Amino acid sequence: MKKWIFLSVCSFALSACGFHLKGQGGLSSALPYHAWYVDGAQIDQALENALHRADGRAVSRAEAQASIVVQQVETRRDIYTITRAADINEYLLTLSVQAQAFHHGQPLGKPISVTVQRAMDYADGQVLGKQEEEALIWAEMRSDAAEQIVRRLSFLKAQ
């Protein structure tokens, strides 16, 4: 009984101080426009999902109040650590995205630049499993980059 009371007091204390799980907090301010045209190349679906979670929506170019154009997406996989036997132990995956928001053809603010990095363990004996793991990590990184871009859109001023 005392354990349950202690746990409930701790959870109330955490919620009172503003603690929230990743993805549960929402944006601190609203997006300047609610209807966005997404020209996102490799991360268009992730951007559309992030806009939807931020109370925005992805629409056609004709319906859009503003647009977000992904100008560059760069992926890199570098050796992060090696063992004493000179075998690869970890890779460092890096995703760099540059985007620009537009309203009626005019840029809104400065270009948005986001870099996301993840370390991935590597083992020669598990190549097929590691390929699937790497694909999942890349998808997660695209989603994180899209969330960061949408978060930065909320700081732009509507014209």
UniProtKB/TrEMBL annotation:
UniProt feature coiled coil, ranges: none
Protein localization: Cell outer membrane
Keyword Lipoprotein among UniProt keywords: yes
Keyword Lipoprotein on entry: yes
Any Pfam family matching the protein: LptE
Membrane-protein topology: Lipid-anchor
UniProt-listed InterPro entries: LPS_assembly_LptE
Family statement drawn from the similarity comment of this UniProt entry: Belongs to the LptE lipoprotein family.
Protein name: LPS-assembly lipoprotein LptE
Native organism taxonomy: Bacteria, Pseudomonadati, Pseudomonadota, Betaproteobacteria, Neisseriales
